[in-house]
Design brief:
This protein has ten helices and eleven strands. With about 280 residues, the protein is α/β, with parallel strands linked by helices.
Length: about 280
């Protein structure tokens, strides 16, 4: 039976550490503030932003949400990004994705000052990560690395396979594994024999975006399995499931993250961590 990696407990540790350091900054009269740009009423985005506000309140970080209707002009959002870049009271900020159709998310994210890019998703931040320069690490891949390290799972020298090549998770996840001295394979929709490639992994990260696609044939005996996917279960119960067939894979793995309660809490915790780091740099 696999060891279940408790993302809620580890995220609580991170939040506690952040809260202590935020308190120290505030005692020395340095503000820590996170701003969010939210466009439209996408239910998942609205819930996610509300949770981030609650997280900020818990650790003592000020938070402000800039809300806009779906038909907001691109120029108005661009002006806000410029103003947040210049505002000395703002430690860091991000644009909640996805944006409604007709808005250019890449243009907005590219305009974020790298020193305030706490989501770590701008091309400038991605480039700095790729060449090994200091940068804010995207929150979900950063959270995965912290889950592994804080669970005592060795990464250096091991074979890591990342399923998915998105800018949000797959690509930066591969970069962070390389930084930790793992040997990395990235699989995607054109990978010819996915089960064969995936089953070479000592550490398998599923970020492929398809519900319960990864089964026992993709997992080597004793592998560590990290499930980044999150989907609504079909049927009336409306529960959450991931990219991994948990019940099938769990007996074969040595450790596994659940959905929910695995990677998700860590993504939010690492946003707090990045915001604190941004405030420290400004201080």
């Amino acid at each position: 039976m696999a060891r279940v990696i408790d993302g809620k407990a580890i995220a609580s540790e991170v939040r506690s550490e952040v809260a202590g350091e935020v308190r120290e900054l505030r005692e020395s009269e340095h503000r820590v503030r996170l701003d969010v740009v939210l466009v439209g009423e996408n239910p998942a985005s609205v819930t996610y932003v509300r949770n981030k506000e609650r997280d900020c309140a818990e650790v003592g970080i000020e938070s402000r949400v800039h809300r806009f209707p779906e038909d907001v002009p691109q120029k108005e959002l661009a002006r806000l990004v410029e103003s947040l870049n210049e505002d000395p009271e703002v430690s860091g900020f991000f644009v909640q994705l996805p944006l409604p159709p007709g808005l250019d998310d890449l243009a907005l994210i590219s305009a974020i000052d790298p020193a305030k890019d706490v989501d770590g998703l701008s091309p400038a931040s991605a480039g700095r990560l790729a060449v090994g320069l200091p940068s804010f690490q995207p929150c979900t891949p950063h959270g995965v690395i912290q889950l592994l390290k804080r669970s005592g799972i060795e990464v250096s020298g091991r074979e890591a396979v990342v399923l998915g090549r998105s800018n949000l998770v797959g690509k930066p996840m591969a970069q962070l594994f390389l930084k930790e001295n793992a040997t990395v394979t990235v699989c995607h929709s054109r990978t010819r024999d996915l089960p064969e490639a995936a089953s070479r992994a000592d550490i398998l990260v599923a970020a492929i975006g398809q519900r319960e696609m990864i089964g026992v044939e993709h997992v080597k005996e004793g592998a560590v399995v990290v499930d980044v996917g999150i989907h609504r279960r079909e049927g009336p119960d409306g529960g959450l499931i991931g990219d991994v067939k948990y019940g099938e894979v769990e007996p074969r793995a040595s450790a596994i993250t659940p959905v929910p309660g695995g990677v998700g809490p860590m993504t939010r915790a690492m946003l707090l961590h990045n915001t604190l780091a941004a405030a420290r740099m400004r201080a």
